[in-house]
Every structure is written in C-alpha cells, then in structure tokens.
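To start, one record:
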Amino acid sequence: MTVEHAERSVGGGYWPSGWPIECGGNHRPKTALGRGPDLRPTDRLVATTRHTGRWPVMFVRRDPGELYLHGNSLGDGPAAAAWVERVDPSTLATVDRSGDLPTGDHEWCGSIAVHANGDLYMVSGSHLHRLDPGCAVVRSRALPVDQAHNGLLILGDGSIVTKDLRLRSEPSTVTVLDPDLEVLTTIALPEPSMGRLAAVPSDRGTYRSGGEDLYLPGTTRVFRLRWDGRALELDDGWQPTYRSADRGGLAWDPAVVDGRVWLHDNGNTPGVEHRFSASPTPRVTPGPVGDPPPPPWSEPVRLIGVAVDDPADQLVICPTELPGGWVIAPPLASGGVAVTWDTGNSGLAAFDVSPGPDGEVRGEMLWFQPFRSSMQPVLYADTGELVTNDFRYLENGTTSDDLVVLDLATGRMKARVATGAVRPNGMFLTPGWDRDLYYCTFETVARVRVESL
C-alpha cells in the first residue's frame, strides 16, 4: 500500500488525521477528505478478509499507515471485554494489541478516537480507557454510570464526552472528562437516549458566545446541550418532538449537516431490546444467519430533519413507506442530498433536500436501489461516490454482506464486492489512504481496494 497524500485534520481536539473518529467528525458527516475509489470501467474491487471471531466495531487512522481497530467480545469468555489493535493496513494482521480490557461486563459497541495528544481513547461498556500508540494502557476508569456507553467524542478543548445508552425508564447521563480521565461534569437528560452524540461549534446553532452544541435523541424528543468549557447546559428552548411515545421506534445517532439535525427512527429492534433487557447487557452468541424477528410497530422508517435554528421546522421523509420498517444506523446528508434506507424492507434512497426558489424543501426522490443496507456509509466528496453494504441471500443457500459503490448523483452502481462476511450489522466504514476502505461486522473485518484490470 502506498500513501500518496498528507493527512488532513477533522479539527477540534483530534490528531491531524483524515479519520480519527467514527463518522469522520463530531457532526457525523460520514464524508471522506481524501481521494475516493474513482472507479473506471477497467477497475474492480478486491477484498482482503480477516475473521476475528469477536465483535469488531470500527477502525480509526492516526499517522499515515497507522490503523487501529477497536472491538468487543462476542458471547464468549467469563466476562465481557474490549480490545484495541494496531493492524497492518494492507493485510489486517495484528501489529500491537492491548489485551482484554474491562467493560463492567457490558457487551455493546463502544467507540475509539485519536486525541490531539497522540493517545487513543476508547469507551466500552461502563469503562473509559486511554492507550498509547503502541496499544499499552495509560489509564482506565469506571464511568460514573454503570451502564453500557455508546459513543465518544473529543471536543475542541480536548475534553472527552460520552453517554450511556438506555431505552426506557431512567434517563441517560452525559459525562465530560479531561484527557487524564478526571470527570469534569455530568448531566442527566430528561429522557433515556439510545442514539450517540453529535457536536458542532456553537456558532452553527443558536448560541453565539463560543463553546459547542451537543445533539442527541431521547425517546420522544431531540435535545441540545451547550458545553462552555466548564459546564453542560440543557437548551430548554430547543427540544423538538420527533415521535409520540406509542408510535414507531426510537432514534439512532444524529448527523448535523446543512443546518439540520438528521436522524432515523425505528431503531430499537427486538435484538436491541434483548441486549438492553438487563444490566449488565446479556451476552449474545450469534446464531444461524437469517431474518431477525419483526419489530413491534407497523410504522415505516422515517428520515427526520430538524432545523437547528427553528425546532418547529421539521422535514420528514420515508425511504420506502412500507410498514414495519427498521434501521440500525443513522442517515447521511451532504450538499442538499440526504441518503436514507429501510433495512427491514430492503430499500436505499436519496432525496433532494435543498431549498427551492421559494425556500421550501420538497424532498423529491432522486433515486432508489433495492439494497438491504444496514451500516454507516461513507461518501467520497471528491468523486461523488457513496459506499455502503448490501446483504444478500445467494442461490446456493448461503449469504453475503457485499460492499457497493454508487454514484451519489444518479444512484448507478459502479462496483460490488463480497467482503467475505456472512452476517451484517450496523458498524462503521473507514476510508483508507490509497483508493481503499475498511469494513467491520460481527466476527469479520475487511479491506476493500481498487484493482485495475
């Protein structure tokens, strides 16, 4: 593998890397800074696959050629555990490994990020760990709330923010820590929260005096918190309702793009409900590959876009309008186009969400593909290529979770490749350095690269 360009930073408190955090930045743009696959008719995609037997969650990049993988146990062993590896970016072989790290016996997908100080910060279950670039543990601590945490962001001042995941009953808690893992503050939300955090500089929202705005969904409302470097404050004037308590499902992570907070509802599938039916979260060993149980709701999946400057301004779009839809990953929005999907009913669609001459957003469909997409996609802005997964049942009775590359403007499929995985989930894609990218799902990771014929 060659590295043809210098790293560009996503900014804030991160190491100068093109992908030091999940989704490529705190506002979750899922948009790569570097060169895309740039597929030509004489190119094809090739996958290098490694079967881990565990639960890989995401890759992040540090310096050119430094690739890190974070994951969890998967239903095996005496206690749940997390781990971090530095892997060879071409072969995916392990170079350095942390060993198993405590999670409070919670088994759930956490997060990892590369701090501006050069160290790695990883949250898993109810524990936060700081590791050096060789994957040696610098410091670990149990978080104030003994619950699985899902997501971690590094703010512009270098502080670390995370939150616990809950589906009902008790409210979730947001915790801010300094780089030495000392707790700076906590705040309880008005509701439980399933989705992860997103954050933007506060001048993109209604606050104008500095700091950052944090966005996250509850069970019925979307909330905004302000971080001023010392305290978290709940914005009482921005709490738009995205669902009623008796209709549809809960929202996953938001993305803050083009002046709106975008999110999917219908996310607390029976599998997620089982995971959070007890604390610590039950250990789950994957069974035979097949369709999961249907959700308890009849409503279709909805893409919801709430204006950051006017919580009453809400755009609602259904990717399929079919009943009983569900998703396990949040949408993508970029430059007036929103990409949304319905995993349960197999449909991926793009919509024009740019304002018309009269200022109205009509949400017209640009294209549709009958793909069973489930994971966090990546958009290459320089080439206009969208990469996501498509889970398929094959004629020989087996299954394959493929990666597909689409033209964002038209939806035309430019290439497809089998990743070597047979089981999909809602994990993360990570752009590489050389027309390649990295993939995670249960028990399997893969590197997908372009090869010229």
In short: The chain has one helix and 34 strands. The first helix runs from residue 270 to 275. The chain has one domain: 22-452. The helical segments are 270-275.
